[in-house]
Automatic annotation (TrEMBL):
Recorded family membership: Belongs to the 4-toluene sulfonate uptake permease (TSUP) (TC 2.A.102) family.
Classification via PANTHER family: MEMBRANE TRANSPORTER PROTEIN MJ0441-RELATED (PTHR43701), MEMBRANE TRANSPORTER PROTEIN YJNA-RELATED (PTHR43701:SF2)
Name this polypeptide is given: Probable membrane transporter protein
InterPro entries linked to this entry: TM_pro_TauE-like, TSUP/Inactive_protease-like
Higher taxonomy: Bacteria, Bacillati, Bacillota, Bacilli, Bacillales
One Pfam family here: TauE
Membrane topology according to the record: Multi-pass membrane protein
Residues spanning the membrane: 73-91, 97-114, 169-188, 194-214, 226-243
Gene Ontology CC annotations of this record: plasma membrane
Amino acid sequence: MSFFIFIVIGFAGNFIGTLSGGGGLISLPTMLLYGLPVHSAIGANKVANTVSSFTSFLVIFKEKEITLKESGIVLVTCLLGGATGGMVASLMSGDTLTLVAIFLLGFAFITSLLKKSNFEGEEQFKLNIKTGSSLFGIGMYDGMFGPGSGTLQMYLYASQKIAYIRAVGLNRVGVFAGCFGSSITYISTGKIEWPLTIALMFGGIIGAQVGIKVARKMNVKYINPLLRGITLLLIVQIVVNYYK
């Protein structure tokens, strides 16, 4: 029964995560409510997301909806940002990290209301001072804290007039970069409960693939409302956890 439940959790989290980021809204709290120890829950989530994000990226890459060059830019920048964030996190309190998360997500939400960024462009992702520093900052935030980093990436790609399915592919690369290093850490420290992690991974792969199929058919006018809804839910969840 537990195996099936974790397949469903993995499916739901990665389905939402593929479309707009924020899949952790579903998977992590549900695993904790189910009684999984916090380190095991985070580790399982990281391992499952590493695999599911990579498989979904491959599908988009094979269809030539994303290039190797821009994928490499996102991968390297997010890895460097994540590594830096991991080091910075040791110098900051948990309360400070929570406030940083609320500020970043709140800023992204307000900016999305002020700017008309709707994934209708056809641009490739180009590295410049603005995009590089933004992506590095998101990777750094992911290394420090994490919740909502995928959603923040989507806002960045929308601002660069990148088509939605391309943004989804780049987002999957960023998620892979953010989860890969931490997965190795959790595996090496023996925090992984493998039967449930494999179930989560299996559901995550299916959820990500279904998410890609839905993403290709989504009307762009629904994407920003979805992003904003996910952002508000993330802010509420983080605030509630902060006051707990």
